[in-house]
Write a structure and sequence with these properties.
Blueprint: H1 2-65, H2 70-77
């Protein structure tokens, strides 16, 4: 009977060790997957930041170069003629009146 109990204890111990190993492996895989997702998200954010920086730079260049004759054309192109005021301020695209 004692040998049987030892055998059962050993079998249960090995089973629990196997379960813990599987859980640890899944935890490591989950953390690696989260790190990959975070890395991809960070790369996308960096690309978007670079695109926004380039757009901002081009807008600043256009604004600085707009001091001459091109400035009047840019003001008309912005849609300031809708209200008739033409005050030079840019209206949001969603405002119809």
């Amino acid at each position: 009977m004692y040998q049987y109990c030892l055998y059962k204890r050993q079998a249960e111990k090995e089973g629990m060790m196997r379960v813990v190993d599987i859980m640890n492996k899944k935890d490591i895989e989950r953390k690696a997957r989260e790190q990959r997702k975070e890395k991809v998200k960070e790369e996308r954010r960096l690309v978007k930041d670079q695109e926004l920086d380039t757009q901002l730079a081009t807008l600043k260049e256009a604004k600085m170069a707009g001091g001459g004759l091109d400035g009047g054309v840019a003001a008309v192109g912005r849609g300031s003629g809708n209200g008739g005021s033409g005050g030079g301020e840019a209206k949001p695209w969603w405002k119809v009146w």
